[in-house]
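Technical note accompanying the year-one report. For the benefit of new consortium partners, we illustrate the data format agreed upon in the data management plan: each record pairs a sequence with a structure-token string. No post-processing was applied to the example shown here.
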Amino acid sequence: GRLHVVAPGDMAAQIEQVFRNLGDIFTAAGTDFSRVIKYTIYVTDITAWQAARNVAFPYYVDRPAATLVEVSRLADADVVVEVEAVAAMD
């Protein structure tokens, strides 16, 4: 089946959803945002990311390394942001 996309084309809403999803994954894995060492963020529009980036700031604990990359498209046309996170574990 097709991927369920939250808020198609809405950068701010998708940023919020991505970080909520990461929080759920971190909780299940026994870690949290304070243990993130690196983010890689893929966006289809860097200008839209910059306008909405404040949504992500609460999740940037201890200022981890981060790379922001603009790509021509992501796996689904409605997806405008994808985030990879590397977090330390106990």
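Partners are asked to follow this layout when depositing records. The radius of gyration is 13 Å.
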